[in-house]
Amino acid sequence: MPRDKDEKNFSSIKEEITITDPAAVPIIFHQKKEEILKLLIKNDMTIIDLKHRTSMNPGTIKRHILDLLEYNLIFISKEQLSEFGVVMKFYRAVAKRVKFKLEWP
Hints:
This protein has 105 residues and is of the alpha+beta class. It has one domain: Arc Repressor Mutant, subunit A. The protein has four helices and four strands. The chain has helices spanning 25-28, 31-42, 47-54, 58-70; strands at 14-19, 74-81, 87-93, 95-100. A two-stranded parallel ribbon has the order 1-4.
């Protein structure tokens, strides 16, 4: 289920979450989103960190990040000012493992 705009961030990474929304299936099994999610399971990372690890364009990474945020697969773990005064957002996976429990139709 897409996340509420007013929903607060998670405080720490969980061992496992269960996905029940069929709309999340193409999100998590998209090759590039899966690559980003696997990196965010291990570490907090910015879009620039992800750019260096994946060689993807930052705009493309941002689009994937927004999808992963919408389905509560990642969260903003912290924000920090860069040396240039730019707010840098760090992202992290909400869980180490994702399980699916789906019924269709």
